[in-house]
Design a protein that fits this description.
The chain is of the alpha+beta class. Helices cover 28% and strands 27% of the residues. It folds into four domains: 93 residues, eRF1 domain 2 (Nucleotidyltransferase, domain 5); 75 residues, Beta Barrel (OB fold (Dihydrolipoamide Acetyltransferase, E2P)), CATH 2.40.50.140; 86 residues, Ribosomal Protein S5, domain 2, CATH 3.30.230; 121 residues, no CATH class. This is Ribonuclease.
């Protein structure tokens, strides 16, 4: 059974999705410093950089946001000019432009923004100027895809674009049209504020984590929804009544059992501690070493205590296969973004390498965030990319050690400065 657990602690909300006792997803958001992705701003271009084909936009956040030229062109690729114009032809300092954040400010970098607006609803994503209908790739039935595509064409107006989400499967045209209508009215409100506001200013704030989880995660395959906070329980009831009334009865208020908090009772806390560790054990006796940097994440696979029963190739393959099944889940839990390099143990047989690649590709399909398996590099490493829009959960869940600055090392007495 799949369960959704919502744990409120101090100024943070942590949510976990558990399937048959195994943690498969984790999200966390603090009330202070929460994600800005999805927010819409009226900004002012302060600098145009021809060499980078981009512009810096003041949206009132202290650090200027970064706007690529591709995010200034029409959102429908078929309607973009064949010859890409120079950035200075369509952007100039002092120009006022409405933008939406697609990537949070991370480290010393400002937010990344776009003019390709999208507003997510329960069943669909509304794009006011995209001019096309899309259907989630996770919907496998061709007949259902075609049904949703035809409904999308019938309910969109003018140059609107619509992407049907997986939650739209089996829903009536009336329900889908109602969802589109709500988002259309929201966009009209944003446009009205745009004409009456002075840049820089905020025009729209994306929903908080509880709202997003109810909207994006709660589906018919969620058997139970547990929450351990009375006020949030009432809020979740209201959200479910609005977005998924048929699932409202699955929501339950958690009362601590034997003094154990929600995550402890469902054995999630221990799984989180393991998932966020540097050294992560495999059931066979092997282990992973996971190192995260600002630019990329590196994962090393080791056989450890696992010696196998047959040949060395079989031992290596079985360890790698176990790692290939676990790593995509770890990336979801840790919300790793950017480039990921995996150093699997060397295998001699091409069929073994193909099998590991196939398993990674299959497991990545379960990811709600875009995850692309690039494949094997010439050095025998596995390369993949995962969309990065927010800080990794490991950063949000903890903080850098004041003594070592996150390196895990301190100066020894011998290497210290001598007076």
């Amino acid at each position: 059974m799949k369960q959704l657990l919502l744990h409120v602690e101090d100024n943070s909300l942590q949510t976990a999705v558990v399937q048959d006792g195994v943690l498969i997803q984790f999200y966390m958001e603090r009330s202070a410093g929460s994600s800005l992705v999805g927010n819409v701003y009226l900004g002012k271009i302060v600098n145009v950089l021809p060499g980078m084909e981009a512009a810096f936009v003041d949206i009132g956040l202290g650090k200027n946001a970064f706007l690529y030229i591709d995010d200034l062109l029409h959102p429908h690729a078929d309607k973009q000019p064949r010859q890409k114009p120079a950035i200075q032809e369509i952007a100039r300092p002092g120009q006022v432009v409405a933008v939406q954040i697609v990537k949070d400010p991370i480290g010393g970098k400002g937010a990344r923004v776009t003019t390709h607006f999208n507003l997510p609803g329960r069943y669909l994503v509304y794009m006011p100027e995209a001019g096309y209908v899309g259907v989630s790739k996770k919907i496998g039935s061709e007949s259902e895809r075609e049904r949703l595509r035809l409904i999308g064409e019938s309910i969109r107006q003018g140059q609107e674009g619509i992407i049907m989400r997986t939650a739209a499967v089996g829903e009536s045209e009336e329900a889908l049209s109602s969802d589109a209508g709500k988002l259309r009215r929201l966009w009209d409100h944003i446009v009205t504020k745009t004409t009456a506001s002075n840049a820089p200013c905020q025009l729209h704030v994306e929903a908080g984590l509880l709202h997003r989880v109810i909207r994006d995660t709660v589906a018919s395959d969620i058997g139970e929804i547990w929450i351990d906070h009375e006020a949030k329980f009432q809020e979740a009831q209201s959200l479910l009544g609005e977005m998924a009334p048929a699932l409202k009865e699955r929501l339950k208020l958690y009362i601590p059992q034997d003094g154990r908090e929600l995550f402890r009772y469902f054995d999630v806390e221990e799984q989180l501690e393991t998932a966020f560790a540097r050294k992560i054990p495999l059931a066979s006796g092997g282990y992973l070493i996971c190192e995260e940097t600002e630019a990329l994440t590196v994962i090393d696979v080791n056989t450890g205590k696992f010696t196998g029963n047959n040949s060395l190739e079989d031992t290596v393959y079985r360890t790698n296969l176990e790692a290939a099944e676990l790593i995509p889940r770890l990336l979801r839990i840790r919300d790793v973004g950017g480039i990921v390099i995996i150093d699997f143990i060397d295998m001699e047989r091409d069929e073994s390498r193909s099998s590991i690649l196939a398993r990674m590709t299959e497991e990545a399909k379960e990811d709600g965030t875009k995850c692309s398996i690039v494949g094997w590099t010439r050095l025998g490493l596995m390369e993949l990319t995962r969309k990065k829009s927010r800080e990794a959960a490991s950063v949000r869940k903890g903080e850098l050690c004041a003594a070592c600055g996150g390196t895990g090392r301190q100066k020894t007495a011998e290497s210290g400065n001598k007076s």
